[in-house]
Protein backbone atom coordinates (compact mmCIF):
# COMPACT_ATOMS: atom_id res chain seq x y z
CA UNK A 1 0.00 0.00 0.00
CA UNK A 2 1.36 3.39 -0.89
CA UNK A 3 1.74 6.23 1.55
CA UNK A 4 -0.48 8.39 -0.65
CA UNK A 5 -3.26 5.80 -0.60
CA UNK A 6 -3.20 5.83 3.21
CA UNK A 7 -3.21 9.64 3.31
CA UNK A 8 -6.13 9.81 0.93
CA UNK A 9 -7.99 7.25 2.99
CA UNK A 10 -8.49 4.77 0.19
CA UNK A 11 -7.02 1.82 2.02
CA UNK A 12 -6.88 1.10 5.74
CA UNK A 13 -3.50 1.00 7.43
CA UNK A 14 -2.70 -2.71 7.96
CA UNK A 15 -0.88 -1.84 11.17
CA UNK A 16 -4.18 -0.91 12.83
CA UNK A 17 -5.01 -4.58 13.32
CA UNK A 18 -1.82 -4.89 15.42
CA UNK A 19 -2.35 -1.74 17.48
CA UNK A 20 -4.15 -3.62 20.34
CA UNK A 21 -1.17 -5.98 20.56
CA UNK A 22 1.24 -3.03 20.61
CA UNK A 23 -0.78 -1.39 23.40
CA UNK A 24 -0.71 -4.66 25.36
CA UNK A 25 3.09 -4.87 24.92
CA UNK A 26 3.43 -1.37 26.36
CA UNK A 27 1.03 -2.19 29.22
CA UNK A 28 3.03 -5.32 30.09
CA UNK A 29 6.25 -3.31 30.07
CA UNK A 30 4.71 -0.76 32.42
CA UNK A 31 3.47 -3.27 34.98
CA UNK A 32 4.57 -2.10 38.42
CA UNK A 33 6.08 -5.46 39.41
CA UNK A 34 8.99 -5.03 37.02
CA UNK A 35 9.93 -1.84 38.83
CA UNK A 36 8.87 -2.53 42.43
CA UNK A 37 9.82 -6.21 42.76
CA UNK A 38 12.49 -6.54 40.09
CA UNK A 39 14.17 -3.21 40.56
CA UNK A 40 13.97 -2.03 36.95
CA UNK A 41 14.85 1.65 36.95
CA UNK A 42 11.76 3.82 36.53
CA UNK A 43 13.59 6.09 34.11
CA UNK A 44 13.41 6.71 30.38
CA UNK A 45 16.17 4.13 29.87
CA UNK A 46 14.54 1.55 32.14
CA UNK A 47 11.12 1.98 30.54
CA UNK A 48 12.63 1.68 27.05
CA UNK A 49 14.47 -1.46 28.14
CA UNK A 50 11.22 -3.05 29.30
CA UNK A 51 9.29 -2.07 26.16
CA UNK A 52 12.11 -3.44 24.00
CA UNK A 53 12.29 -6.61 26.09
CA UNK A 54 8.55 -7.35 25.90
CA UNK A 55 8.49 -6.45 22.20
CA UNK A 56 11.42 -8.82 21.64
CA UNK A 57 9.58 -11.63 23.45
CA UNK A 58 6.47 -11.13 21.33
CA UNK A 59 8.52 -10.96 18.12
CA UNK A 60 10.34 -14.16 19.11
CA UNK A 61 6.98 -15.87 19.57
CA UNK A 62 5.89 -14.64 16.13
CA UNK A 63 9.21 -15.50 14.50
CA UNK A 64 8.64 -19.23 14.41
CA UNK A 65 5.40 -19.06 12.46
CA UNK A 66 5.38 -18.15 8.75
CA UNK A 67 1.76 -17.01 9.06
CA UNK A 68 2.92 -14.29 11.47
CA UNK A 69 5.66 -12.76 9.31
CA UNK A 70 3.45 -9.91 8.09
CA UNK A 71 2.01 -9.14 11.54
CA UNK A 72 5.52 -9.32 13.00
CA UNK A 73 6.75 -6.70 10.53
CA UNK A 74 3.77 -4.47 11.31
CA UNK A 75 4.35 -4.78 15.06
CA UNK A 76 7.97 -3.77 14.49
CA UNK A 77 6.74 -0.77 12.51
CA UNK A 78 4.51 0.24 15.42
CA UNK A 79 7.50 -0.02 17.76
CA UNK A 80 9.52 2.20 15.42
CA UNK A 81 6.67 4.69 15.02
CA UNK A 82 6.21 4.96 18.78
CA UNK A 83 9.92 5.34 19.49
CA UNK A 84 10.25 7.97 16.75
CA UNK A 85 7.38 9.91 18.31
CA UNK A 86 8.90 9.61 21.78
CA UNK A 87 12.24 10.94 20.53
CA UNK A 88 10.61 13.89 18.81
CA UNK A 89 8.44 14.62 21.83
CA UNK A 90 11.51 14.66 24.06
CA UNK A 91 13.07 17.32 21.85
CA UNK A 92 15.36 15.31 19.59
CA UNK A 93 15.69 17.20 16.31
CA UNK A 94 14.98 15.90 12.83
CA UNK A 95 18.67 15.68 11.96
CA UNK A 96 19.39 13.31 14.84
CA UNK A 97 16.21 11.19 14.92
CA UNK A 98 17.39 8.85 12.14
CA UNK A 99 20.64 8.02 13.93
CA UNK A 100 18.89 7.48 17.24
CA UNK A 101 16.25 5.31 15.58
CA UNK A 102 18.98 3.17 14.01
CA UNK A 103 20.43 2.62 17.49
CA UNK A 104 17.05 1.80 19.00
CA UNK A 105 16.22 -0.68 16.24
CA UNK A 106 19.67 -2.24 16.68
CA UNK A 107 19.00 -2.53 20.40
CA UNK A 108 15.73 -4.33 19.69
CA UNK A 109 17.44 -6.72 17.29
CA UNK A 110 20.21 -7.38 19.81
CA UNK A 111 17.68 -8.17 22.51
CA UNK A 112 15.85 -10.57 20.22
CA UNK A 113 19.01 -12.56 19.55
CA UNK A 114 20.16 -12.46 23.18
CA UNK A 115 16.77 -13.64 24.41
CA UNK A 116 16.57 -16.35 21.76
CA UNK A 117 19.78 -17.88 23.10
CA UNK A 118 19.07 -17.26 26.77
CA UNK A 119 15.56 -18.72 26.69
CA UNK A 120 16.84 -21.85 24.95
CA UNK A 121 19.28 -22.52 27.79
CA UNK A 122 18.21 -25.07 30.39
CA UNK A 123 19.07 -22.88 33.37
CA UNK A 124 18.49 -19.21 34.08
CA UNK A 125 22.15 -18.15 34.25
CA UNK A 126 22.16 -17.03 30.60
CA UNK A 127 18.84 -15.28 31.06
CA UNK A 128 20.10 -13.43 34.15
CA UNK A 129 23.18 -12.37 32.17
CA UNK A 130 20.96 -11.15 29.33
CA UNK A 131 18.83 -9.15 31.74
CA UNK A 132 21.95 -7.71 33.37
CA UNK A 133 23.24 -6.51 29.97
CA UNK A 134 19.94 -5.28 28.58
CA UNK A 135 17.83 -3.91 31.42
CA UNK A 136 18.64 -0.83 33.49
CA UNK A 137 18.22 -1.80 37.14
CA UNK A 138 18.43 0.30 40.25
CA UNK A 139 21.13 -0.53 42.75
CA UNK A 140 20.07 -3.75 44.42
CA UNK A 141 17.78 -4.69 41.53
CA UNK A 142 16.86 -8.36 41.51
CA UNK A 143 18.23 -9.99 38.34
CA UNK A 144 16.80 -13.35 39.32
CA UNK A 145 13.29 -11.88 39.78
CA UNK A 146 13.35 -10.10 36.43
CA UNK A 147 14.78 -13.16 34.65
CA UNK A 148 12.12 -15.41 36.21
CA UNK A 149 9.35 -13.05 35.09
CA UNK A 150 10.82 -12.89 31.58
CA UNK A 151 10.65 -16.67 31.42
CA UNK A 152 7.02 -16.57 32.66
CA UNK A 153 6.03 -14.05 29.98
CA UNK A 154 7.83 -16.11 27.30
CA UNK A 155 5.93 -19.19 28.46
CA UNK A 156 2.61 -17.36 28.40
CA UNK A 157 3.30 -16.16 24.87
CA UNK A 158 4.29 -19.65 23.73
CA UNK A 159 1.02 -21.04 25.09
CA UNK A 160 -1.11 -18.64 23.05
CA UNK A 161 -2.49 -19.64 19.69
CA UNK A 162 -2.08 -17.14 16.86
CA UNK A 163 -5.58 -15.61 17.05
CA UNK A 164 -5.22 -15.04 20.81
CA UNK A 165 -1.77 -13.49 20.37
CA UNK A 166 -2.94 -11.20 17.57
CA UNK A 167 -5.97 -10.22 19.68
CA UNK A 168 -3.56 -9.26 22.50
CA UNK A 169 -5.04 -11.75 24.96
CA UNK A 170 -1.85 -11.97 26.98
CA UNK A 171 -2.80 -12.64 30.60
CA UNK A 172 -0.64 -11.62 33.55
Architecture overview:
The chain is mostly helical and 172 residues long. It has one domain. The protein is 70% helix and 0% strand. α4 crosses α6. It starts with a helix and ends in a 6-residue tail after the last helix.
Rg, nearest Å: 17 Å
Largest beta sheet, briefly? none
Total domains: 1
Round the mean pLDDT to the nearest integer and report it. 91
What is the 3D shape?
A: globular
Low-confidence stretches: none
Structural class: mainly alpha
One letter per element, helices H and strands E, the order comes to HHHHHHHHH
**N-end to C-end Cα span:** 36 Å
How many helices does DSSP assign? 9
State the helicity in percent bands.
over 70%
Portion of residues in beta strands equals under 5%
Helix-strand layout with pairing:
Layout: H1 3-7, H2 19-29, H3 32-36, H4 44-63, H5 69-89, H6 94-120, H7 125-134, H8 143-159, H9 162-166
Helix pairs in contact: 2-4, 4-5, 4-6, 4-8, 5-6, 6-7, 7-8
Question: What's this model, at a glance?
Answer:
With 172 residues, the protein is mostly helical. The chain has helices at 3-7, 19-29, 32-36, 44-63, 69-89, 94-120, 125-134, 143-159, 162-166.
Amino acid sequence: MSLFARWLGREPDPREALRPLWHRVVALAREPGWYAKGGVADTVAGRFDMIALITALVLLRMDGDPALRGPSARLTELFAEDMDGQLRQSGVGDLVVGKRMAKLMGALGGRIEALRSALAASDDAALRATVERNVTLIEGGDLAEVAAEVRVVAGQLAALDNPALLAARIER
